[in-house]
Specification:
Chain A: One of its GO terms (biological process) is phosphorelay signal transduction system. The structure holds two protein chains of two kinds. Chain A has five helices and five strands. Chain A is an alpha/beta fold.
Chain lengths: 132, 275
């Protein structure tokens, strides 16, 4: 995997430090600068402080969950930014539909690996398609 | 690899999976089985053939079969040909009219992702196709993958490779942890076992042929033969898509690249209408 710089900032939102660390390693390998938040409320504050290009968003978190963050972010910042990719163990169809309707650009069902995450970031328009 | 080892492994894989390994696929065999040799600490394919006949050979035979029949495939693999197809289809549909269905062929379709991707594009473009019907044919040499392709059931991992979430929720249903392609999409596709080295004429005429990342496993005379046989089945204004690492150059003059497009070809001597 090449490590092109300058893909912008990705905010990783997950209440698990282990998951944040794993995601950070993959995203930095793909050329993103990574910031972290432990729940939706922290993520919202981070967006207000400095808007990231992308948010990799866990669903089930204390304080404010992923969907509540997503709805708040869309209400406050509009439909296009930040680009939000859900990343969750919730794999039921209605959960995916709910996230897309709430304004998520893409949806990753855990477990994920570097190749899968890269693929989804390409689909979300956050990375160039290597084939194009 | 000695002919004897090859024959033994080929017979074993055929008996287990139905996959027919032709002699010209020796290179593919070596490429795909290389990691197993390394993992098992085997020096060469003779040692592998020997181990397969010994105690514990059953488990190893499963791994060998799996390595040879698990064909790398993903939805919308290498997006470029699908983008070209989106631009191509409205013109083709207008040329055919409502009475004549478009015929599209996913050659060496593996577990069906390519054929289902084509079907999703057709569903998306239906309003622009003026009622022109479309039939998709998916073929593969392996009965095992054709059966899987027909079922249209994919794992959570498979539906995340190349497939945007909005298309997943539109075209799939969730069943017991697997993802099932919806009936309207499945009805557009017929999957059949077919060997690309066999006579292709019974398959009929096609407006679009996808044959990607298949020729790389053939030697030059075989590539030329398959390309010319496919050219003969391609409509005058039809398009053949090859994989990113494949070309017709030096193999046949019956196909020419579409100007400015990588991996898209039309029949030689035809007006450049396509694309």
């Amino acid at each position: 995997m090449t490590a092109p710089a300058g893909q912008g900032t990705c905010l990783v939102v997950d209440d698990s430090r282990v998951v944040r660390k794993a995601a950070r390693r993959i995203l930095e390998g793909l050329g993103f600068q990574v910031r972290e938040a432990g729940d939706g409320a922290e993520a919202l504050a981070a967006c207000r402080a400095e808007m990231p290009r992308a948010v990799l968003l866990d669903r089930n978190m204390p304080v404010m969950d992923g969907i509540a963050f997503l709805r708040a972010a869309r209400a406050e910042f509009g439909p296009d930014r930040p680009v939000v990719v859900l990343c969750t163990t919730e794999a039921a169809m209605e959960r995916i539909v709910e996230a897309l309707e709430a304004g998520a650009q893409e949806y990753v069902m855990k477990p994920f690996d570097a190749a899968l995450l890269q693929d989804k970031l390409i689909q979300a328009g956050l990375l160039p398609d290597p084939a194009a | 690899m000695t002919p004897r080892s090859f024959a033994f492994i080929a017979a074993l894989v055929k008996s287990r999976s139905g996959l027919v390994l032709a002699a010209e696929q020796g290179y593919m065999l070596e490429t795909r089985l290389g990691p197993i040799l390394k993992r098992e600490g085997l020096a060469d394919f003779e040692a592998l053939a020997e181990r397969l006949q010994g105690p514990g050979g059953h488990r190893l035979a499963e791994a060998v079969t799996e390595a040879l029949t698990t064909n790398e495939s993903s939805f919308f693999r290498d997006g470029r040909p699908f983008e070209h197809l989106r631009r191509l289809l409205p013109g083709l549909a207008a040329a055919r009219g409502a009475g004549m269905p478009l015929r599209l062929w996913s050659a060496a379709c593996s577990t069906g992702q390519e054929a289902y991707s084509i079907a999703m594009i057709l569903a998306e473009l239906a309003p622009q196709l003026g009622g022109c019907r479309a039939d998709i044919l998916g073929t593969d040499i392996s009965q095992a993958v054709v059966t899987r392709a027909r079922q249209g059931r994919f794992s959570q991992f498979e539906v995340q490779r190349g497939l945007p979430a909005r298309l997943l929720v539109r075209h799939f249903r969730q069943e017991e942890g697997r993802w099932q392609v919806a009936p309207d999409l499945r009805e557009m596709i017929r999957f059949e076992r077919w060997n690309l080295l066999a006579d292709l004429r019974p398959l009929g005429r096609f407006d679009v042929i996808f044959c990607r990342n298949v020729l790389i496993y053939f030697d030059a005379p075989t590539k030329a033969r398959v390309l010319e046989a496919m050219a003969a089945q391609l409509a005058p204004d039809g398009v053949l898509y090859l994989g990113g690492a494949e070309t017709v150059l030096g193999l046949t003059d019956r196909l020419v690249a579409l100007p400015g497009e990588r991996g898209a070809y039309r029949r030689a001597g035809m007006a450049a209408l396509a694309g």
